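Intended use. Records like the one below are meant for learning the mapping from a protein sequence to its folded structure. Do not use them to infer anything beyond what is encoded.
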Amino acid sequence: MTTARHDLVRTLERAGAVPPAWRNAVAAVDRALFIPARFGTFDAEADPETWRSVVYSDAPVITQVNDGLDLGAGAFERPTSSSSMPSLMLEMLDLLDVRDGDRVLEIGTGTGYNAAWLCHRLGEDRVTTVEYDREVAARARANLAAAGYRPTVVVGDGLAGHAPGAPYDRVIATCTLRDFGHLVEQCPSGRIIAPWGSSFFHGSFATLDVRDGIAQGSLTGDPGFMWDRVRRAGAGHIRDYYHGETGVQSSTRVPPQNVLQTDPAFFVSLHVTDAWYRWCDAEDDTGEATLWLFADDGTSWATAEYVPRTEEFETDQYGPRRLWDEVEAAYREWERLGRPPRDRFGLTVGPDGAPQVWLDTPERPVP
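Structure written out for the chain above:
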């Protein structure tokens, strides 16, 4: 088992994914203590070698779907808790820029593996972690205790933080946030790292330095984290949202795949915050595809049909919102601004937790 644990360290080091300040923590904390004996199709008792190969790889491990509820055969399986990819965890911790003596608040305890690294580095008395799911929190406490750590584990809404332990020097969220709740208030002078975005696009790390109760910083990276349990995006099978309704048909000259590239998708997500998409390739070899758009509340949907070597694409929109029109309008605005890349945008968050995006400078807010 020790050899396998060291294999993970070597794998991460060969990829250049281990910041020197975190190597001892990675080497000291056994990931196997934080992974269930059974997850997905893997079983430590039936096939221990395969189970270990997954646990000690640089891969995420899904430990819960659908909030732990049995929704029946054929139901959409939404991952709701996991042990994240170790290299991605280390990328976040490197951005967090922890210093000896810092007090850290973690949002999203999950298995407890990330909290264990923080405890090894800083001491358990300087780590507070908040988990929304009571059963997940209980398992994390047990996992942490098995590894020799007993940080403060709180059950509750992560955006409420944990005021009794404030102020914190660093805050790290291991789930995707739409806003920042009381986190800036509880970290009035320090740094906050969180996956941030809206339903349409949430592939950004917000790296915010807090001074005098105002957080400000950049948007980078390509994280793929689960949502904050209270404010998550819509998801499901297409059949869960589309029931054969007839929409309003039209056409567009914007190729639907263009709005899904990182830079335009990021900009679109600032304006279309509460709708998500799914790209579906045709089952034949025509190269055709359908972009589906769904409102989070399930009241509206839209499609844009991609056909190769054409300049006009059919659209269909249903419900009180015209989702494709919203997406296209935001995309056209991005073009009008000169197609700015995501790294030209920044984020400012005040004590109320509401984010304000700006282009190039805080004096140029994006409406």
